[in-house]
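Format notes (please read before filing issues)

Several people have asked whether sequences and structure tokens are stored in separate files. They are not. Every record keeps both together, in the order shown below: the sequence lines, then the token lines. Line labels are part of the format and must not be stripped during preprocessing.
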Amino acid sequence: MRRRAGRPATPVLSREIIARAALGLIDDAGADGFSLAALAKRLGVRPSSFYNHVDGKDDILAAVRELVSDSIDASMFARLPWDEALIVWAHGYRDTFAAHPPAISLLATLPITGALRTLRMYDQVVSGLQRGGWPGEVIIPVMVSVESFILGSALDMVAPPDMFDCGPLSSEAPSFAAAVRARDAASAVHGRPPADLSFEVGLAAIVDGLRGTLRALGGSPGPLEPLGSPGSLGSLPDGTDMERAAVPLPRDITPDTDLTGEPA
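Then the structure lines:
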């Protein structure tokens, strides 16, 4: 008997389609709003239909993790010194999760089992740290410490812009209120969100501290010149000059200030 032409009785599913729908549901409804029943309703199928393509909720979330990880480039660890590679990787990682902030609480606490493409991404990071001279027993702690900072910074990107506004209580916390005003002034000068400045200051401090840790462990710390110097990274994937990518901020910032901390 010939099959009748026309639309199938139920939507065609695949692991990729399910993962994309799940990520959309998490973005729209948050971590608490994700369930197999809600996902099935979104796709117009019965929950039992999923089991022809995935093993259950954890496997769906593993597929979501892979989908998100696909946007995180780690190839620079094969061609750059470990510290420079961490800078570029951190920026891309943060931007990726900032686009899906509700996914952070789900994926950051889920075992990596089943997420093959994510494992490959992590393997690139670990291989780069190995080549940089990091001892095996501290490589994962180094990666996780940077990753934890990245995920917190991704949440900061979507925090309310007035999160630190003291309002009428400014006089009760004058030092804090003045510091917030100074930060906002620096943000206005650069035309960049305050979250960017916080991220860059923190990332510069972390990478510099890791260089010192590696020296103390007897490894090679990597290049010590400012990250924006000739022969270094040049620019980030978004075109940001590395001279302005790692920035301990001075008190008075002008557009011509060298944000690497070196005299102009």
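For reference, the curators noted about this record: The two ends are 80 Å apart (CA to CA). Confidence is low (pLDDT under 50) at residues 223-264.
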